[in-house]
Amino acid sequence: VRLPAPPERLRVGPLREGAFPSRLHDERVAALLGSWLAVAFGICMLTGLVSHVAQTTELLPPRPVQLYRVNQGLHVLAGVAAVPLLLAKLWTVYPHFFAWPPARDVGHALERLSLLLLVGGSLLQLATGVMNVASWYVFGFFFPAVHYWLSFVVIGALLVHIGLKLPITQRALRRPVSAARDGDGLDRRGFLRATAAASAVVVTATAGSTVPGLAGLAVLSPRDPRVGPQGLPVNRTARDAGTLDVGASYRLVVEGPERVELTLADLQALPQTTVRLPIACVEGWSAVGSWTGVRLRDLLALSGAPARTRVLVDSLEVGGRYRTSVVGAAHAADPLTLIALRLGGAVLHPDHGYPARLIAPNRPGVLQTKWVRRLVVL
Amino acid sequence: VRRLLVAAGVVLVGVGLRGSALAPDTAPVRVAVLLVLAAVLHDLVVAPAVVAVGAVLRHVPGRVRGVLQAAGLVGGSVVLVAVPVLVGAGRRADNASVLPRDYVRGLWLVLLVVVATAAVLGLLSAVRERRRR
């Protein structure tokens, strides 16, 4: 269905033909940037789904130990890398925003509406994502839920976009890129290289929050894996959680077939194991600690429960979304899963969960429950 | 394939919109407003600003312009990504491990490296071109 064109005298300013003279507003540049962006968004979506499974189910296996850590590092870094790519891509196709007539027919109008979802959604995902990793929680909604659902909108709108543009993209990618310098300033190749460089620079300036050895370079990263109580970052402090005063009356209760109550001295008297495991935050930072404590499966055995059993871990925290967490059967039986009492050889700092915390392999940081007071066999 | 992509895309958008509207803690109205605002802010403020800078740069001669364009693209991206840590609204009195660095210093360092690199690359390509002649 064709739509009536608006009167020609409204076609002024950027709506005029040839209003954008730069040779960088080019089909091939747009196709290349779009392909790069699709890879970055694809990584974000896949790693995001893995994280969603890790956060909301018990399906993630305890091995490989570093899986969640690498997954979240990739997720956040791919998102950061996508910022320059998205802006360069949008700038390349910006003249189309002023296409004349604004909508040729109903199909064209619907396509432009889907582009609003794609462009607005992509910008919102990247902006709130970058803000979220800097702990700037001002959105007025629960970020994980919105980030998750909006990702389907964005990826869906992206698939529609790719489906509609595929012939143009293929045509553009087959065309050889002209290296000849036609005039002054940045040529197309230079523009693509500068965009790639922008992605590389923002990734380099932030990757050290999770990649070992790069912390010194990460001058713009919101976390330093070496900085925090006992040399390890924390998200929720003991003051936040209301767990600053844990006295001699502390007991760890194990509710299995039998009910067992253990004092801190009892826990310290049990066989101790030391493991090197990372705290891997959903926000993309991670830091490895040397944790010492009692194997979870040993505690389960004390209460007469089998090692392979689901366990509810209950914290002293007075409130909060993550006061309790569930340890799946495979994680509970794993020899690396501890109720840790010490970090780096010293008694746990209150912010790291004194007197006792859960630490398990391949598990999101927020589910490594701190200030543990009760283990309930499910 | 194209029809399949479009159909799958429409389904995913539907799933996402439904989830955004019905799932708990999502504030759908606020998200919708912010989504449109993000697009409007980009299309009517950010992009025109970049176009305006580009128009000014047209008066800069030859190779210097290329260097400025590249440095501006990279530097601008860095500044934008750094805004949340520069604002520092996430800082908390009882948690020194959140935003522990001097980000103003970090930003200047990165920008210095970017400008220096762009200048050196520009010089090198000028030398190369002169030799070729």
Spell out the key features of this protein.
heterodimer, A: 378 residues, alpha+beta, five-stranded mixed β-sheet, 10 strands, 41% helix, 14% strand, elongated, B: 133 residues, mainly alpha, 0% strand
List the SSEs and their pairings.
The complex is a heterodimer of chains A (378) and B (133).
Chain A: H1 27-56, H2 67-92, H3 106-133, H4 143-174, H5 188-204, H6 238-241, E1 252-255, E2 259-262, H7 264-269, E3 273-280, E4 286-295, H8 296-302, E5 311-315, E6 324-327, H9 329-333, E7 338-343, E8 346-347, E9 357-359, E10 372-377
Parallel strand pairs in A: 1-10
Antiparallel strand pairs in A: 1-2, 3-4, 4-7, 5-6, 5-10, 7-8, 7-9
Helix pairs in contact in A: 1-2, 1-4, 2-3, 2-5, 3-4
Chain B: H1 2-22, H2 28-57, H3 62-87, H4 103-132
Helix pairs in contact in B: 3-4
Q: DSSP strand (E) fraction of chain B?
A: under 5%
Our count of helices of chain B gives 4
Largest sheet of chain B: none
Helix content of chain A: 40-55%
The number of helical runs of chain A is 9
Which chains share the greatest interface? A-B, 85 and 79 residues
In whole angstroms, the N-to-C terminal distance of chain A is 61 Å
Shape assignment of chain B? extended
- How much β-strand is present in the residues of chain A? 5-15%
Distance between the termini of chain B: 50 Å
